## 1
Amino acid sequence: MNNRVCVFTSVHPPLDHRIFYKECKSLARAGYGVTIIAPHDRPEVVNGIRIVPLPRPKRRVSRIFRTGWQLYRKALAEEAAVYHFHDPELIWVGLLLRCHRKKVVYDIHEDVPQDLLHKFYIPLWLRWPLSWMASTVESIAARFLSGLIVVTPSIAERFKEHSSKVVLVRNFPVPEEFPPHLEIAWSQRDNAVIFVGSMSRNRGIRELVEAIGLVPEHLNSRLRLLGPFSMPNLLSELERVPGWDRVENLGTQDREGVIRSLSRVRAGLVTIHPVPQLTVSYPIKMFEYMAACVPIIASDFPTWRQFIMEARCGLLVNPLNPREISDAIEYILTHPKEAEEMGRNGRKAMETSFNWTHDERKLLAFYRGLSAPPPRQAPPGFGSAMASK
């Protein structure tokens, strides 16, 4: 029986956390033979998962068409039972594979039509037409693809009238990545707060720099940034903002670096601007803060308010008000007992509700519904899937 799965992307690296460490490792543990085709510099096998490299084009148009065509030919040669792609620019590749009667799954990481309305590099007059075009293409494609995997309930709602096979697989943490022995005693943590992820104006990075500058000087507070700057000249702009002298720009880190950094801070920041597609998102950083016993300082959005208040794991602020963000940071730093309790509450909520184990089961059930069962059933939970890298 053919139980081979071909996962492909023209945008993400092969060891992308959702693609490799969550979905592909879960599928491999369940008995599927998994191959990833992705931008990479060499063929290799990691944890039993084959990686087939793609060249890294310098231009977006070349990536969509030339690289897409190379990807299509490599994917077809795999003769897999299921093809699983992750980028909207590869919809045409997925539809070509469907013409060969292949099972094809589209994994939707973001609300593309809404996202296009806020892309800084697209002229304003062009954003609405592109958004409409993306919505139309995705809606039509959904009717012909074998199934859709989506990351948020709002995206699932958008596609339910176009496909009967839509499954919500959220981007929650893998508990085994955050074992208790990695935690540092609260009294030994630095007087620092952290932001993890891609930095842009919509993600509130300027307000965070301003906020750390407003925290009383005697607290010796620091803002640590982990991740890339997604916009040209943003770093040079921030370096002129009052408060930058208290910023530690640590750049992009590997998984071990992220987890190590989270274990040393007193709060994690998710102060995203109230942009429509972001207010209903489920940022992975928020749940990783919870996994690392780090209190959350987050934008006061209804979706986030519900579970942060229920879990009692953080503080809510107006993301456009640096003074309000600063006051929340000051409260965390000056109320260590309450802050530590918030961190513990967040960890408990992650362990019981917001973890990959639940969504792994949904992913595997979805695959079984594609009539491509593995040779053996997956053991419950993610277990030792994170044991080696």
## 2
Amino acid sequence: APKCPRIENVAEASPDTPLVVVVHGTFSCAVHVAVRIGEVRPDLQVARFEHDTFLSITENIRALTEELQRLAVLGQRKVLLIAHSRGGLVACQVAARLRSSHPAMKVRVWTLGTPHWGTPLASLGGGLAQGMGALYRLCARQRDGAFYATYAEGAASYLTSVGQMPRGISVMSEGSDFLDMHRLLAEGLDLKTWGAEYDIASDSGLGHGLLLSTAVSEMFDGRLNDLVVPTQSAILDHSASLQSCNHFQYFDHATFYSALTSMSFT
């Protein structure tokens, strides 16, 4: 965590050095991704926006907007928001607000696995949610003869086991008024979106292929998906990049870091 400060602890700004802000997804944190980005691009300043994803998404948007407005006053002029899942909704809305309030600040947004058009998981409730939670818990991979799950997968297990979705999650339901407004405000942003198709054949996890293939296919009505977000829902622009992975593996792919290495603010 000391290698990548929270954005509220960033006290200095630069008109020349780009600031990368990592915006995590549901029930997660940004430390791991922020550290990795800092290792790949040590020439960039990296910070993380840690926030409660169960709160209203407007509260998250306001908090990050205020921090970047503070840095804009201090002279920050170049910002790249790298956001996973729900975090991409926050990042796009923040960029849209800064476009109006601080036009001198150049803000780019990269979203990975963000449900720009929603996800059916956000509408789960009652017995169906608990059933999907059980599947996620059983969806452990095998490493050196032992079963394990990542923190993100554990979070998905918890989230889908609750009877009623928190308001910060239900906003991602397909057809929600927020998402209709979100896509309108995202038009004209300097935006790159990343989507994924989950491929059972290439997954080393025992549980993913055996337990989730049928359940996910039915839940998504046969649409391509990354186990959490429909593939087409994650794509909002023509520069989209498609990966073969599940929702929790976007930052494991070399293609993302290749794009990050070649990225410039010129």
